[in-house]
Design brief:
- The protein has helices spanning about 55-70, 85-95, 120-130, 215-225, 285-300, 300-310, and strands at about 5-10, 20, 25, 40-45, 75-80, 100-105, 135-140, 150-155, 175-180, 185, 205-210, 230-235, 255-260, 280.
- With about 325 residues, the protein is α/β, with parallel strands linked by helices.
- It folds into two domains: about 5-185, Rossmann fold; about 205-310, Rossmann fold (3-Layer(aba) Sandwich), CATH 3.40.50.
- Helix 2 links the parallel strand 5 (about 75-80) and strand 6 (about 100-105).
- The longest helix is centred in the N-terminal third of the chain and has 14 residues, at about 55-70.
């Protein structure tokens, strides 16, 4: 008979920890969860906030908290909000590669007291994946409206979906799901490749931009040069950005990345893409942005940074 792993609960806030105060949802009002009853051996709360208030420093604080629990925990559940969940998932997944236990980043679209909330389903999916036995690393269990709960790799998430807050992995590359009986089916086992982060980089700013027709590339270039910033453009294919001379071509001399190519199709605009643009295919834009920031914090040379950015550490690259 399979034994249930004990849970270390890291409560960082989010809607799943919130409840109603009149018409306002306030985080931190829920500190225990019926779904975890009898299994929680330790509770830690490095901070409690709605995820829209997360900062890069908050990500580091949460990652440090997680790292501090790994040696003694059998399994870890982290509560979090959905708004910036993809950023936290990418950061935790990339800075905790090769861990030997399951870590579940669990959220909800509505407070648990609301009968329409998916929080209970997400927690139950997390427990099912933990008890399946072969899941190791950082993952995100989530049930979109009218869908079954699925398990996302932390490094594959796209932005929280507009209006309904749904979450999707790039190209639909999920790692498993729970069936009608609640049993977890593990469909994609990720092999981790630990990449030592040496902490010898700089504080170079990195900006993530979503391509749109209103970008003032002249102003962007001026600002990036003043700040000595690297730029990461989020795209879903290489035709999703202005690659002409009056577009991204104005950024010559600036460290510039373009995420996309997920569809595998190449549009005519790729033929006029300036050679200085580093087009990175088959990776979620938020994960590429996170890798570029981590690379600049940890590696001094461009060669070292590029080796890290292009390394497939936790399933972030796929075909």
């Amino acid at each position: 008979m399979r034994t249930h792993k004990k849970i270390t609960l890291i409560n960082s806030g989010g809607t799943i920890s919130s409840d109603y105060d009149g018409m306002i949802m306030r985080p931190g009002r829920v500190t225990s969860f019926d779904e975890l009853e009898g299994r929680v051996q330790k509770v830690v709360s490095p901070f409690c906030m709605l995820s829209e208030n997360m900062t890069w420093q908050s990500l580091k604080q949460l990652s440090d908290c997680l790292a501090g629990e790994l040696e003694t925990a059998e399994a870890i559940v982290i509560t979090h909000g959905t708004d910036t969940l993809a950023y936290t998932a990418a950061y935790l997944g990339l800075t905790n590669v090769g861990i030997d236990i399951p870590v579940m980043l669990v959220s909800a679209d509505l407070p648990l007291s609301n009968l329409q909330s998916n929080g209970s389903a997400n927690l139950l999916c997390a427990l099912a994946a933990i008890d399946e036995g072969s899941v190791k690393g950082v993952y995100v269990p989530y049930r979109n409206p009218f869908e079954n709960p699925v398990l996302h790799a932390s490094t594959r998430l796209l932005s929280s979906r507009d209006f309904d807050g749904g979450l999707n992995s790039a190209l639909g590359k999920v790692c498993g799901y729970t069936d009608r009986t609640g049993k977890f089916i593990h469909s994609d086992r990720i092999e981790a490749h630990k990449f030592d982060l040496c902490g010898k980089g700089s504080k170079k700013p990195v900006q993530l931009l979503f391509a749109n027709p209103g970008i003032d590339y002249k102003a962007l270039a001026r600002s990036a040069r003043e700040q000595d910033a690297a730029l990461v453009f989020a795209g879903y294919h290489t035709g999703s950005i202005n690659s002409a001379a009056d577009g991204i071509g104005l950024l010559e001399g600036i460290e510039t990345y373009l995420a996309g190519g997920l569809s595998g199709e190449k549009y005519q605009s790729i033929e006029q893409m300036p050679s200085f643009v580093r087009v990175i295919d088959n990776i979620a834009p938020i994960t590429l942005y996170t890798k570029v920031r981590i690379a600049h914090e940890n590696f001094a040379s461009d060669e070292e940074r590029q080796a890290y950015i292009l390394a497939n550490t936790f399933g972030e690259y796929f075909n």
